[in-house]
């Protein structure tokens, strides 16, 4: 047992913190208010290597471990969860999925550009009637010999209008149920592929969430990921790692709100002293710090499991379940510590509170995480 981060981990953490404080903090309130995608900031994140952190350097990635990724995700999410969801999807769903299961041609063609952020990717599983019940895919991919004909609608897709590459899950053979599902690489601009309406969201408002429509899109056979029928396992396996990223995002939202609450409580005076001198505030800060530390340890443990090639399905689900709960609770308390100031935008905590909610919903709701955990326990 060794709780010590390496020099390299500390350097990545410091670089992410520096980037978040200098590049993401300015304008974050306005981007949230006007639902503005952080395009310039995402470009810089790509140049600094934050969009393909764990990808092998031979495909232009950073070659880092999952611990580094968790540390960077926490720092970026403290400030701008709209930017960190782009980072999470690109790193742990799109890049990881392609690197693990793609062909060499697919990696050369797509991964090499995704890893540098030259282009970004999207992961398309959710549908109007298939969220938690992910096997009920209505999007169809009919096998036409040397291509598949893709038809259907996807919902709530992160990077919906900014991605260039979309990993799309679709049903090829309904009789085979989940074993008839495939995953495809769909390029922006393929005929019949249309980006639908942008969602007007409670939180992560700077991120770009859209529905997508596919009408007779011809997807070349070489764009299928894995063997015929591998699509559902591709989605499940990819999401298992994605959940570590979202857990780290939730951790960052919580620790960002906590840091603001500590700072404010040392500045604001009430009844003649800084509010940090009142036990009511001290107890809140103690609870926040304890919960955040527990969430951080769960995130790092899941990352450690992944890095050491152990099963990380359950530890990732536990990390996401717990960290997202801590994010919700901590941000609500951080608003309370700020009192009336917490309720207005300038103090950041109301945004973090709104951003926290999605971490209990996407990449598997808290209820789904409990299914994943309990199945593992009762195996
Ligand atoms: N890695 C690889 N394969 C996996 C897997 C994983 N983590 N989890 C499940 N599978 C495989 C199973 O082994 C099974 O394969 P076989 O039938 O060949 O043995 C197959 O996938 C189906 O698994 P299962 O029977 O467990 O599927 P269920 O329909 O019962 O669904 C849940 C399981 C509910 C856990 C799954 O549908 C799920 O995670 N849903 C949430 C999806 C989600 O996160 N949606 C959000 C969209 S992305 S923002």
Written overview of the protein:
GO terms for molecular function: acyl-CoA dehydrogenase activity; flavin adenine dinucleotide binding. It is an enzyme of class 1 (oxidoreductase). It is a single chain. With 379 residues, the chain is of the alpha+beta class. The protein folds into three domains: 7-120, Acyl-CoA dehydrogenase/oxidase, N-terminal domain (Butyryl-Coa Dehydrogenase, subunit A, domain 1); 122-231, Butyryl-CoA Dehydrogenase, subunit A, domain 2 (Beta Barrel), CATH 2.40.110.10; 239-378, Butyryl-CoA Dehydrogenase, subunit A, domain 3. The protein contains eleven helices and ten strands. The strands form three sheets. It has a four-stranded mixed sheet with strand order 1-4-5-8. Strands 2-3-7-6 form a four-stranded antiparallel sheet, covered by helices on one side. A hairpin with a 3-residue loop joins strand 2 and strand 3. Helix 7 runs antiparallel to helix 8. The protein is globular and about 80 Å long. The mean pLDDT is 98. It binds coenzyme a persulfide. Coenzyme a persulfide (COS) binds at residues 125-126, 131-132, 134-135, 178, 232-233, 236-237, 239-240, 313, 362-364, 368, 371-372.
């Amino acid at each position: 047992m060794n709780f010590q981060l390496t020099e390299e981990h500390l350097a990545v953490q410091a670089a992410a913190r520096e980037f978040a404080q200098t590049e993401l903090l300015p304008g974050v309130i306005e981007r949230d208010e006007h639902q503005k995608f952080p395009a310039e900031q995402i470009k810089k994140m790509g140049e600094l290597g934050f969009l393909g952190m764990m990808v092998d350097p031979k495909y232009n990635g950073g070659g880092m471990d999952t611990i580094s990724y968790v540390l960077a995700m926490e720092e970026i999410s403290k400030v701008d969860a709209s930017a960190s969801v782009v980072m999470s999807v690109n790193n742990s769903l799109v890049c990881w999925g392609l690197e693990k299961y793609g062909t060499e041609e697919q990696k050369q063609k797509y991964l090499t550009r995704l890893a540098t952020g030259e282009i970004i990717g999207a992961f398309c599983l959710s549908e109007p009637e298939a969220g938690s019940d992910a096997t009920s895919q209505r999007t169809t991919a009919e096998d036409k010999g040397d291509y598949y004909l893709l038809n259907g609608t996807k919902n709530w897709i992160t990077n919906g209008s900014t991605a260039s590459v979309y990993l799309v899950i679709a049903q090829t053979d309904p009789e085979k149920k989940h074993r008839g599902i495939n995953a495809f690489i769909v390029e922006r601009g393929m005929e019949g592929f249309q980006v639908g309406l942008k969602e007007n969201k409670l939180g992560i408002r700077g991120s770009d969430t859209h529905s997508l429509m596919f009408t007779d899109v011809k997807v070349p056979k070489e764009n299928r990921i894995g063997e015929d029928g591998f699509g559902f396992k591709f989605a499940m396996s990819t999401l298992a790692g994605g959940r570590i990223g979202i857990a780290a995002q939730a951790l960052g939202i919580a620790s960002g709100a906590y840091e603001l609450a500590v700072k404010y409580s040392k500045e604001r005076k009430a009844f003649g002293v800084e509010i940090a001198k009142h036990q009511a505030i001290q107890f809140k800060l103690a609870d926040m710090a304890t919960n955040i530390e527990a969430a951080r340890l769960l995130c790092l443990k899941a990352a450690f499991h992944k890095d050491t090639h152990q099963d990380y399905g359950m530890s990732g689900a536990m990390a996401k379940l717990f960290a997202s709960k801590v994010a919700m609770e901590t941000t609500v308390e951080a608003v309370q510590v700020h009192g009336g100031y917490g309720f207005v935008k300038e103090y950041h905590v109301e945004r973090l509170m709104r951003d926290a909610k999605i971490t209990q919903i996407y990449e598997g709701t808290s209820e789904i995480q409990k299914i994943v955990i309990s199945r593992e326990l009762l195996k």
